[in-house]
Design brief:
Blueprint lengths: L8 E5 L4 H12 L3 E6 L2 H13 L3 E6 L5 H15 L4 E4 L15 H29 L2 E6 L12 H21 L4 E8 L5 H9 L3 H8 L8 H12 L10 E4 L7
Parallel strand pairs: 1-2, 1-4, 2-3, 4-5, 5-6, 6-7
Helix pairs in contact: 1-2, 1-8, 3-4, 4-5
Length: 253
Amino acid sequence: MTKQLSDKVALITGGGSGIGRATAVLFAQEGARVAVADLNPDSAAETVQMITAGDGQAFHFQADVSQAADVQAMVGEVVARYGRLDCAFNNAGIEGSPVRTMDVDEADFDRIIAVNLKGVWLCMKYELEQMLAQGGGAIVNTASVAGLVGAHSMPAYAASKHGVVGLTRTTAVEYARKGIRVNAICPSFVQTPLVERAFAALPGLEQGVLNANPSRRLAAAEEIARAVLWLCSDAASFTNGAALTIDGGFTAQ
């Protein structure tokens, strides 16, 4: 059976854990050469070890996606090693402390926006440059159901993810005729370290989340990874500017 990303080069930010790690491993299994970027180099290296243990090709790169110099160097390193960039999954993100809007610390607000929104823009800025030069590519950005509806006690996070959806749609329109597709995923709660931290900070949140979801469970990171794979593959060749909801029916209520 032909692998869905054979001979493709993929870059994944936030690839050291959770959705990013699951996606990096899946992409490698589907034939891609994978660049795993993360602020934590040790966790990124662990992801690479998982890939190479399965005979995949990968390397890791430490990067803070809120810093232009880091992002430019990251994309440059991918091209230097592999010659091109076919797929980019801009997934790095932080959640911040759970507080209501008037209680958000200004520095925390700025940092969440810098990583979650500015970071996606910076990644696309340099990814698009390379994809335009080579004649096309596919980009997927991680938004959230918090980018579609309100998220109690997560005002900065929700604002950043709404911004990702708008930025994704705008960029998709701008580059559709250049062979570049840009989509976003909007997961609900996924079994990841980020979500585990949120549950630990807010007693009762986990049960409330389970009760609110028609599926009565969290998503597995691998379930989200499969959606990202589809969006980056040729099977999604006419899917552009979408904000793909992956939430077990939560927003259907």
